[in-house]
What does this fold into?
Amino acid sequence: MKRYLSMLAATFFMLQAVQASESVKAYQNGTWAQLSKANLGEPLAVHFWGVTCAPCMAEMPQWGKFLSQNKQAKVIFVQVDDVPPEMVQKMLQRAKLQNANNFSVFQPFDDAMRYEVDPQWHGETPITILINKNGQWQRKTGPIQFAALKAWFLKQ
It folds into this structure.
C-alpha cells in the first residue's frame, strides 16, 4: 500500500510538472545517471540552482546571456527547491532560459538525490558540475565565472 501511494504521488507531481510547463522536465532519483550516460562523449555543464537562492536568482540572467553568446555550449539546468512549477517557469522566463534544457524537482531534493550527484555535496546552491567528454567531472560551488566556463568549453 505504501509503495502504491508513493507511485501515485510521483505520478501526480509529474502530471503537475507537465501541466505547468512542457519545457521543464521532472528531476527525480535516477535522473542524474540518465543524464550522465546520455551525454557521455561531449562536454556538459549541469547547473543546480534554486528559486529561493538569492545568488542563483542574480546569476540566472547571466546564464541566459552566456547561452545566447555560446550556442555550442551544452548546459542542463536543475532547479532544486520544492516550489510550485509556476515559480520555476517565471524565473526561467526572466532569465531568458525558458527554452534551455531545464529540469526541476517536484518533491523535496533529498540526500539521496544529492548523493547521486556528488557524495560530498551538502546541498548548497548554486553549484555547477562540469563533465568533460571522457566523463571526468569537477564541481564549482557558488556563482560560476563565465569567462572560465567559456574557456573550459573551448578546451573540450
Observations:
- The longest helix spans residues 2-20.
- The mean pLDDT is 88.
- DSSP finds six helices and six strands in the chain.
- The longest strand covers residues 44-49.
